[in-house]
Structures are given as structure tokens and as C-alpha cells.
Design brief:
Blueprint: E1 2-3, E2 9-10, H1 28-34, E3 37-42, H2 48-51, E4 56-57, E5 61-70, E6 73-87, E7 94-108, H3 111-115, E8 122-125, H4 133-144, H5 165-173, H6 180-189
Parallel strand pairs: 7-8
Antiparallel strand pairs: 1-2, 3-5, 4-6, 5-6, 6-7
Amino acid sequence: MQETFDSMPLHDYHCALMSAQLPVIVDPLFMVKREFAWSGELETGGMERLATHVSGAAEPISATLEFGREHGKARIRGHVQGQVEMICQRCMLPVTISFDQSFCLGLVQSQAEEERLPEDWEACYINDAEMYPVDVLEEEILLALPLVARHEDVNCAGDPAQTDPESEQAQEQEKRPNPFDVLAQLKQSR
């Protein structure tokens, strides 16, 4: 504690528990020291990597970030939750994908530090004093999405098992004979 000019005790300043706006650039170790926390909604418009995987966001994405120390190590705990539209790889129509992902990132500067992290933490390398929190959240959203988007309903319009049976029969009849059948016949005749 420090004394002020009027002899009132002045306590160390701590960041507000929740900040209203997500900072664009932060010094991660400074944020850990201040135990910075943020909770709010993310607009996906500026997330270029996410835009290459989704066709749109159904609503703003809820997210939290908490910088702090655990087990004597600097870390970021966070959570992302929301819905995005992706293209179903069966029918090529939009499908809404929901995600709800919690994460814990250990802030490290070397592989030796990474090896000392708890098993359920992922490493986040901080080689300089700058970090873009929205990039961290975007990465976690990408990790929460499926590699191949599909409708949960197996009767999706693009499911080959659900196509018209008459057209399947016509396709089977139109199949060309196997060119190796001739070789099989020659082998049998010898």
C-alpha cells in the first residue's frame, strides 16, 4: 500500500474483473500479472481464417478470456460458444453447426517450458510482447468445428443411400463390363 497526500491508504490497482471491449493487442504477461478477464460477444466479420471454413455465423459468438496463473505458470483460460453455418459435404447445402468449447493455454517461450505444462493445457508460444486475443479465440473456434461438416440426419439430401432407387438401378445396368474379365476368362481356359 502507498500513502497519498491526504494520508488515505491507496491500494494497488487491479483491472476490472470484466472489461467491456476485447483489446486488439495485449502484452500477455502483463495481462497475466493484472489477471485480466473479458467476456462478451464476437462478431465473425473480421475473422479471415474462420471465413474460409464457414458460410456465415447464425448469431454473435459468446466468448470469455481469463489471464492468470495456475500451478505457478502463466495461462489463459477461455470459452467459446455459438453457431456457424458450414456447407454439408453430403448435400452441399448449408448446415448449422453448434459448438461449445473450453480451453486452457499455457503461455510458454520454449519447448522445455511446454513439456512442464499440465497435460490438459495446450501450449501458446509468446515469443514477443504482443498477442492478438481475437486470433486466439478464432483459433479455438476453428478447433471446435468438425473437419467435415454434415447434417446430423443421415437422410440428408446428399446421402447416396437416399437417392431414387430407380436411378440407381439404371446406373447399375449402364455399368461397363470390367476389362479384366477377359483376362480372367483367358486364365480359366488355360
